[in-house]
């Protein structure tokens, strides 16, 4: 497993701890406000380069990355323990940095990566669902893994991968509940086609549509209505011709 100890370097510069206007001024200058604490020292307000912080957060080891913090001519090991983004534009607003003693254990959360094709997916038509995506561990800073691989090839319906099933490196102490489910196989609810009996029953229960009565010439003829009488002019003409 890759560890979170990398050769990144972050420069920090002291600043006056002020209000929101001071923080905005720092951001306008291309930096972001930060706080450094830990290792038995007082907390200190500083400014850092957001581009370097973004590169660390987006690295393989992410926020668990241990890097060199350059501050006031000194270098100490540190890591990012908290960060805030602007909700609309997604720009970094603030970070918290913690000084790290390399000979003392840390409590961190590392991501869980699922490996392999589950038998329940391959032969049973199920779907693999990951319930827990991180696990909390305790170890020395140099031993923090970038992630923990979990083999799911054996998973079928009715079986659950738990924290206790994750590979246990002797250097790592798992702090999460051993019975916490990590992944399992779920089924897909199929849409059942209605039976002919169900269709017939539904049709019988539906209200009948009212009969539409058509009116017109055809109805008049079928009901035996008398034809209209001949015009008087035509009848008089026919009478003279007979004479």
From TrEMBL:
Spell out the SUPFAM superfamilies in the cross-references. Ribosomal protein L25-like (SSF50715)
> What UniProt keywords are attached to this protein's entry?
Ribonucleoprotein, Ribosomal protein, RNA-binding, rRNA-binding
Biased composition regions of type Basic and acidic residues, renumbered to the chain:
8-24, 228-243
Region (Disordered), start-end ranges = 1-25, 196-243
InterPro entries, A to Z: Rbsml_bL25/Gln-tRNA_synth_N, Ribosomal_bL25/Gln-tRNA_synth, Ribosomal_bL25_b-dom, Ribosomal_bL25_C, Ribosomal_bL25_long, Ribosomal_L25_dom, Ribosomal_uL5_bac-type
Q: Which domain of life is it from?
A: Bacteria
Residue ranges of coiled coil = none
Q: Which GO terms describe its biological process?
A: translation
Supply the NCBIfam families for this chain. Answer: bL25_bact_ctc
Give the similarity note.
Belongs to the bacterial ribosomal protein bL25 family. CTC subfamily.
Protein name, per record: Large ribosomal subunit protein bL25
Name its species.
Candidatus Sulfotelmatobacter kueseliae
Q: Which gene encodes it?
A: rplY
């Amino acid at each position: 497993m890759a560890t979170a100890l990398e050769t990144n370097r972050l420069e920090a510069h002291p600043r006056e701890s002020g209000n929101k206007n001071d923080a905005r001024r720092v951001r306008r200058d291309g930096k972001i406000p930060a706080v450094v604490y830990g290792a038995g020292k007082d907390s200190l307000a500083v400014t850092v380069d957001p581009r370097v912080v973004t590169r660390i957060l987006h690295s393989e080891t992410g926020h668990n990355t241990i890097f060199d913090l350059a501050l006031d001519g000194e270098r100490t090991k540190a890591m990012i323990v908290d960060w805030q983004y602007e909700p609309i534009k997604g720009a970094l607003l603030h970070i918290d940095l913690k000084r790290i003693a390399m000979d003392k254990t840390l409590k961190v959360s590392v991501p869980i990566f699922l490996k392999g094709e589950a038998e329940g997916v391959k032969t049973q038509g199920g779907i693999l669902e990951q319930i827990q995506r991180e696990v909390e561990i305790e170890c020395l800073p140099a031993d923090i893994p970038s992630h923990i691989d979990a083999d799911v090839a054996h998973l079928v319906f009715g079986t659950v991968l738990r924290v206790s099933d994750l590979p246990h490196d002797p250097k790592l102490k798992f702090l999460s509940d051993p019975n916490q489910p990590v992944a399992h196989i779920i089924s897909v609810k199929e849409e059942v086609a209605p039976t002919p009996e169900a269709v017939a029953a539904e049709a019988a229960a539906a209200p009948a549509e009212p009969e539409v009565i058509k009116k017109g010439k055809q109805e008049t003829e079928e009901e035996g209505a008398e034809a209209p009488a001949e015009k008087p002019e035509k009848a008089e003409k026919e009478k003279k011709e007979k004479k």
